[in-house]
Amino acid sequence: MAHSDVAPASVKQPVRFVDLTNQHTLAKSELQTAILRVLNSQQFILGPEVEQCEHSIASHSGTEYAIGCASGTDALLLSLMALELGPGDEVITSPYSFFATASSIWRTGAQPVFADIEPDTFNLDPKSVESVISPRTRAIVPVHLFGHCADMDTLNTLASAHQIPIIEDAAQAFSAEYHNRRAGSLGTLGAFSFFPTKNLGAMGDAGAITTSDATLAKRLQRLRVHGMEPKYYHSEVGLNSRLDAIQAAVISAKLPFIETWTQSRRDNAEQYHQLFQTHETSPYITLPLEKPGCRHVWNQYVIRVPQDHRDALKDHLHNEGIGCEIYYPIPLHRQPCFSKLGYREGSLPISEQTAKESLALPIHPDLTIDQQDRVVSEIAAYFDRIQKQSRNVLRGPAYLRRVQESHPVPENETPPSRSQG
Question: Cα torsion for 24, 147, 62, 52, to the nearest 10°?
Answer without folding.
Answer: -30
